[in-house]
Amino acid sequence: MNPLNRLVVATIPFVPRSIVRRFSAPYIAGAELGDAVRAVGEMNREGACATLDVLGEYITKQEEAWAAARVYKEVLDAIVANRLDANISIKLTQMGLKLDLALCREVVAWLVGEARQHGVFVRIDMEDSTCTTDTITVFRAMKEEFDNVGIVVQSCLRRTLADVQALAALKTSFRLCKGIYVEPRPISWRDPEIIRSNYVLLLEEMFRAGCRVGIATHDARLVWSALALIHRMGVPPDGYEFQMLLGVDPELRRIILKEGHRLRVYVPFGRHWYAYSVRRLKENPEIAGYVLKGLLGRA
Amino acid sequence: MNPLNRLVVATIPFVPRSIVRRFSAPYIAGAELGDAVRAVGEMNREGACATLDVLGEYITKQEEAWAAARVYKEVLDAIVANRLDANISIKLTQMGLKLDLALCREVVAWLVGEARQHGVFVRIDMEDSTCTTDTITVFRAMKEEFDNVGIVVQSCLRRTLADVQALAALKTSFRLCKGIYVEPRPISWRDPEIIRSNYVLLLEEMFRAGCRVGIATHDARLVWSALALIHRMGVPPDGYEFQMLLGVDPELRRIILKEGHRLRVYVPFGRHWYAYSVRRLKENPEIAGYVLKGLLGRA
């Protein structure tokens, strides 16, 4: 990131929430489950499948873990009732990962079991690097008991190649992304070109092991690299899907769909929109404009 | 190099020696052997091994060749006496390469023989392109007689792929670097991206031939590429080591060591610090500041 962008990012906490909310409107389905169901319905009609994310992370009270799981249970019911082509994505810090690992396991096991009864797959999201090891531990425990669960790995982390090698032995279903959290240099690569190259290396590793992969990226070069790899390695259509965030580059989404690839849209909804919005804001090239508007009070 | 940097580089000869010396302090262990022993000891404690370089090159009198070899003999004694995990790097123009090839061979053969008795490996450095052919000739002669000797090749030179193919047949121990000397276009690549890609091609060639390689670079992209290649080709831990210069990116050094790779630090010392310092100065991004300080007389 160049110094100007770093400066701009540093001012984000001072941007009024109303501005952040307006900025993030295209990226979030809405505050209510009904909004999310509508957004997924739209994506399904466009030919894309979806994954539903109830916004929220880093809970501070144990009861919030069960509360989050119960909201996801409503999501599962809504998926079945509305015959949505969708699964769910969950964040473990929303289910107590940082409070009590045993509690987190218990809550997630209950939810994955519920999802299984609903015929729905559960993707365990990856968060910042303080969560990586524990998230993998919980995933492994779920994987022993259930077949409807997968994990996310990030190509920006130096450890990921080793993680993928270990997890590929379990025929893990992966989502592969670059990783949006800013991590310290000793554990992560910084150069965007390295992060890209590592992404392709990891993808090849996953395909070679016969794992299913959600290719989560909006980077046109990575989309090309993935298509080239799928072609070269003869990966079958059910061996992969592309994944994109709601609101990010809808044209690319339509292009990939039109070419006949499976594509899943990440649809977040709920009241806890702030942390997610800030992450979207940080990676947006037009961020300076929004920040400036906010600081000048042009809300 | 952009035109501004070229201009700045052209002014380096006019920068006072005091400024050059101050700039180069982190890159040189000191003037005396004791300084070098201390620096190597520090590196060893950090988990890195080292290679010791007695600064000096392009001698103009024959007796200087034997004088240089005798200093290296003291270095060998110091390595053994202080139980340092270190070898030595020698420059052939410091041992008469440009004066008398037969003399140079004789001096180097004596030194490599001494090193062998001390159980120390000798790396023959590569200098500018007027030295390449003769350096390889001397290396080949040493390689016939001794097993404790290796050479350096540069990925910026167009001839290097052919050199590597020929030398790989002898199971040569290589150090691979990009090459710091500015060479004419007919014999060298200029585009940093080509020099990088050629580096990876050469490294793959060396690994495929089963040669041991010192991967000498501070370029994070090349470090990634080397790690990816080591992974893909299943190169064993004793088949390679990373190599870095004293004072350059200590954080990267610690990262590589922490991940369990062998890493060797190039530790130069001695009174002839000027030419080496100017090469470091030329490749430093903050060079303009130093040059400006020098020209404004703010020593």
Question: Can you put this structure into words, describing what you see?
Answer:
- 2 copies of one chain form a homodimer.
- The first copy, chain A, has 299 residues and is an alpha/beta fold.
- Chain A has 2 domains: 1-28 and 273-299, no CATH class; 29-272, TIM Barrel, CATH 3.20.20.
- Helix content of chain A is 49%, strand content 14%.
- Chain A has 12 helices and 8 strands.
- Chain A has helices at residues 3-10, 17-24, 33-46, 62-81, 101-117, 132-145, 160-168, 192-208, 220-233, 250-258, 274-282, 287-295; strands at residues 49-54, 86-90, 122-124, 149-154, 174-177, 213-216, 240-245, 263-269.
- In chain A, strands 1-2-3-4-5-6-7-8 form an 8-stranded parallel beta barrel, surrounded by 6 helices.
- In chain A, helix 4 runs parallel beside helix 5 and helix 8 (192-208) packs parallel to helix 9.
- The longest helix of chain A has 20 residues, at 62-81.
- The relative contact order of chain A is 0.17.
- The interface between A and B is small, with 12 and 11 residues.
CATH class of the largest domain in chain A: Alpha Beta
Number of strands of chain A: 8
How many structural domains can be distinguished in the coordinates of chain A? 2
Task: Identify the quaternary structure here.
Answer: homodimer
Helix content of chain A: 40-55%
Our count of helices of chain A gives 12
Rg of Cα set of chain A: 19 Å
